Amino acid sequence: MKKILFILPTLQGGGAEKLLVDILKDFDYDQYEVQLMYFYEKNIYLSQVPPNVRKIVPFYIKPG
């Protein structure tokens, strides 16, 4: 099984974040182990990430 790691500061909003969520919905999870690393607490797209994606949060950064 191939492993893929995506790293983004946040899924708070914007084009790149929405595009990543759309890409994650199309993966063949029988062939790929997908992980998503993010750092910010506020993430409006997080609920749309498929359950097959392992979420990694090494630490939280509070915006502001």
What do these coordinates show?
This protein has a three-stranded parallel beta sheet, with no helix packed on it. The N and C termini lie far apart (40 Å). It has one helix and three strands; from the N terminus they run βαββ. The chain is globular. The relative contact order is 0.30. The mean pLDDT is 89. Helix 1 links the parallel strand 1 and strand 2. The protein has 64 residues and is of the alpha/beta class. It has one helix at 15-25, and strands spanning 2-7, 32-37, 54-56.
Blueprint of the fold:
Elements lengths: L1 E6 L7 H11 L6 E6 L16 E3 L8
Parallel strand pairs: 1-2, 2-3
Features:
three-stranded parallel β-sheet; alpha/beta; 64 residues; 23% strand; globular; 1 helix
State the shape. globular
Oligomer: single chain
Average pLDDT number = 89
Helix tally? 1
Instruction: State the separation between the terminal residues, measured CA to CA.
Output: 40 Å
The proportion of residues forming helix, as a percent range, comes to 10-25%
Helix/strand-derived category reads: alpha/beta
Percent of residues in β-strands: 15-25%
Sheet bearing the most strands, described?
A: 3 strands, parallel
Radius of gyration: 12 Å
Order of helices and strands: EHEE
Low-pLDDT stretches are: none
**Strand line-up across the major sheet:** 1-2-3
